[in-house]
Amino acid sequence: MGCPIVPHRARIRRTEKKDTAGVIVFARKGKEYTFKLGISKEDYTTLGPETALKLFESKVTEKSEKISKNFEPIYQYVKNNLFSKKTQVVFDKGKTESINKLEVLQEKIPDKKDYFNDLKYIIKELDALPERYAKQIRQISEKSLEKDVEELHREVSQKYLIEIIEKARRIEDEEESLILAEELI
């Protein structure tokens, strides 16, 4: 017996209770994808694939119901924020320290100001710098400043930074495709 085919943009209310309630949405944009869980009409969280897929998981015997009146406002809020990052999210201590270190470095090494600006943009706006590089930024020492910055520049080249920025722009230009939304009870 095969799996039933779920129509594109399906909206389903689950009948099996999960650990989490809300509206879960799966969407893609270009080659990128996202899972969001709408908690209310003013709040959502981004889920990793493993967590989201567990929430989508169901038994063959589970029946679906029509969505509730709570679904639509939550769904619309999540849909409008599918590929945007929450600007009010507080950065963790490491990211804040990395940004602060880059601001200090801009003053100490002004000829690398554009490079440091690109790094700050990728950390702050795109949240796309691997943690090991952010950690490397935080570990730059006053005693070995030139050496540490050169090592960072070798490992995180301007070309690498431009590729991250260009990829983010390409993704931004792609069309969003909402694939599935389920209301969890």
What does this structure look like?
- The protein is α+β, with helices and mostly antiparallel strands.
- The protein folds into 2 domains: 10-86 and 175-184, no CATH class; 93-171, no CATH class.
- It is 45% helix and 19% strand.
- It has 7 helices and 5 strands.
- The chain has helices at residues 49-56, 71-80, 93-108, 113-126, 131-138, 145-155, 158-173, and strands at 10-13, 22-29, 32-40, 43-47, 176-184.
- Strands 1-5-2-3-4 form a 5-stranded mixed sheet.
- Strand 3 and strand 4 form a beta hairpin.
- The longest helix has 16 residues, at 93-108.
- It is elongated and about 65 Å long.
- 18% of the residues are buried.
List keywords for this structure.
185 residues; 2 domains; 5-stranded mixed beta sheet
Mean pLDDT: 87
Strand content: 15-25%
The string of secondary-structure elements, in order, is EEEEHHHHHHHE
Distance between the termini: 28 Å
Class from secondary-structure proportions: alpha+beta
The biggest beta sheet, please? Answer: 5 strands, mixed
Helix fraction bin = 40-55%
What does the overall shape look like?
A: elongated
The tally of helices reads 7
Q: Would you report the number of β strands?
A: 5
Strand adjacency order, main sheet: 1-5-2-3-4
Please tell me how large the radius of gyration is: 21 Å
Overall structural domain count: 2
Low-confidence stretches: none
